[in-house]
Design brief:
With 492 residues, the chain is of the alpha+beta class. The protein contains 14 helices and 27 strands. Strands 3-9-10-16-13-12-11-24-27-23-22 form an eleven-stranded mixed beta sheet, sandwiched between helices. Strands 18-17-19-20-21 form a five-stranded mixed beta sheet, with helices on both faces. It binds one RNA strand of 77 nucleotides through strand 13, strand 16, helix 10 and helix 11.
RNA sequence: CGGGGAGUGGCGCAGCCCGGUAGCGCAUUCGCUUUGGGAGCGAAGGGUCGCAGGUUCAAAUCCUGUCUCCCCGACCA
């Protein structure tokens, strides 16, 4: 275990913060609740962005950009959406500062520069986008519109945690317009599938697809689909959402189109998003008490090389050999970093790259050089082996695949171990207390029961899963009919 | 907005109860020895103790006021 590292079991939040800190991912900024994403953290986010963007484009979506500011009158047009976000909005009221006559060298808000209409800093962009779409859509020929934007949004949260909840965060938000209800629902599900595939294949994080209950639904949506993941402390994390918005926004912004038959109809909509919260999910899914563990597919560099030497002469010999090997490996499409800094010692570097979660570390000193060998250490198992240099690139390629698969399997096993059925409320409470994790239980479908359980246990319904076989039963609290089990958990 | 805690070199902290003019670890700089798991020794630089008052010969320490941050709740992707 790394020096001075709190273990996951001792204090999970401290452990989490330590990982973020030691891996050099992000830090709190001087601005309340806001986060500085440092270069290494951002590099991982960029890998995520690139892959998601590719998947969106492969399914016919394009990127665009809409304004940061939403005039209040537009923001409040869709009432439920506005109400849902009202309590966490930053609002711009003035557009100018002036020097303070009472305090030299200080500025004050110029009271004469008050905006006629306040501007809401977007907590999400439905309003400004649907106001724009109104001008883009006249006929069925203009549909569908499949647009995504990469942007920042602001939600003035009371309490924040790096990546998991910050006042400002980066995300992508897709906003689509369709001619029919069916098509909009299909889009909503297509995106959910993309999110699930991304989480599982790239983040190596198993997720459950499902639909939210009414109380957890996005404000202004008819249905919210989600992917839910389980973190190592037994708490659930909503990792992505895809909303079927029905005609709510079309009605609020009066977006109608002429059908083939010449009738005027409201447009059907979806919206969907994932945020830098995925970084938090990634950290909490795989990391251990030695730091971050990255799945190879999202690692800014998949392999790091550390030369070991005494004196200039040995340094040249080893570094030159490593440079040669690096070329071979890179030819396979593997990203490699050769750390030949003379300012840090090998032990330091070993520790540093473990904190940073680099999947494979190669080390070579004279001993290995003379024997034609190289030391290969994998981050997921911390296993070290001496390989022959011959055919190394191929071996590493397979090893990376193996690590990716192993991380996913480990996460699946963990989740299965922490997934249980509860048939009585007593059993439910005891599982929650002892083990946490996902609890599959029957629920009568009412908001009252859901609220009661939340108040008494702090567990919420994460989703009504799509995959679960429809096994009817009786609500664990009220004994009323239940069509299928739903998933409960304490959540982030 | 309720309930707790903390502000002391870049970072993490001790000192405060019982007042005597600031210390430890890490980091930084220099020198020598080192380099297969966060090197060792020696030396050096760096702080108006959150801010404003008050008590006192004397305040990091006691008193009053004030500001800020963190944690736990409520809210939330």
């Amino acid at each position: 275990m790394a020096k001075g590292f709190p273990t996951r079991k001792e204090d999970y939040s401290q452990w989490y913060n330590e990982i973020v800190n030691r891996a050099d991912l992000a830090e709190h900024s001087a601005v309340r609740g806001c986060m500085v994403i440092k270069p290494y953290g951002y590099a991982i986010w960029e890998k995520m962005q690139q892959q998601l963007d590719k998947m969106f484009k492969e399914t016919g979506h394009s990127n665009a950009y809409f304004p940061l500011f939403v005039p209040k009158s537009l923001f409040e047009a869709e009432e439920k959406n506005a109400e849902g976000f009202a309590k966490e909005c930053a609002v711009v009221t003035h557009y100018r500062l002036k020097s303070n006559p009472d305090e030299a060298g200080k500025l004050m808000v110029d009271p004469e520069a008050k905006l006629e209409e306040e501007l809401v800093v977007r907590p999400t962009s439905e309003a400004i986008i649907w106001n724009t779409y109104k001008g883009w859509i006249q006929s069925y020929r203009d549909l569908p519109i499949l647009v995504n934007q990469w942007a920042n949004v602001v939600r003035w949260e009371m309490r924040t945690r790096l990546f998991l909840r910050t006042a400002e965060f980066l995300w992508q938000e897709g906003h689509t317009a369709h001619a029919t209800r069916e098509e909009a629902i299909e889009e909503t599900k297509t995106i959910l599938d993309i999110y699930a595939e991304f989480a599982q294949k790239f983040m190596a994080m198993p997720v459950i697809k499902g639909v939210k209950t009414e109380s957890e639904r996005f404000a202004g949506a008819l249905d919210t689909y989600c992917i839910e993941a389980l973190m190592q402390d037994g708490k659930a994390l909503q990792a992505g959402t895809s909303h079927f918005l029905g005609q709510n926004f079309a009605k609020a912004f009066d977006v109608k189109f002429a059908t083939k038959e010449g009738k005027q109809e409201y447009v059907w909509a979806s919206s969907w998003g994932v945020s830098t919260r995925l970084m938090g999910a990634l950290i909490m899914s795989h990391s251990d008490d030695n730091g971050l563990v990255l799945p190879p597919k999202l690692a800014p560099y998949q392999v790091v090389m550390v030369p070991i030497y005494k004196g200039e002469e040995q340094r040249d010999t080893v570094v030159n050999k490593l440079k040669e090997i690096k070329k071979d490996i890179e030819a396979k499409g593997i990203s490699v970093k050769l750390d030949d800094r003379d300012t840090h010692k090998p032990g330091w570097k070993f520790a540093e790259y473990e904190f940073k979660g680099v999947p494979i570390r190669l080390a070579m000193g004279m001993r290995d050089f003379d024997a034609g060998n190289i030391e290969v250490a994998r981050r997921d198992t911390l296993e070290k082996k001496v390989y022959e240099q011959k055919d190394l690139a191929n071996k590493l390629e397979h090893l990376l695949e193996n690590i990716q698969e192993n991380l996913y399997q480990k996460a699946v096993d963990f989740r299965e171990d922490k997934s249980q059925k509860a048939d009585s409320y007593e059993e439910f409470k005891s599982i929650l207390k002892q083990k946490g994790g996902f609890i599959y239980a029957h629920w009568d479908g009412t908001a009252e029961t859901e609220e009661k359980i939340k108040k008494e246990t702090k567990a919420t319904i994460r989703c009504i899963p799509f995959t679960e076989k429809k096994e009817a039963g009786k609500c664990m609290v009220t004994g009323k009919h239940s069509a299928q089990r739903v998933i409960f958990a304490k959540a982030y």
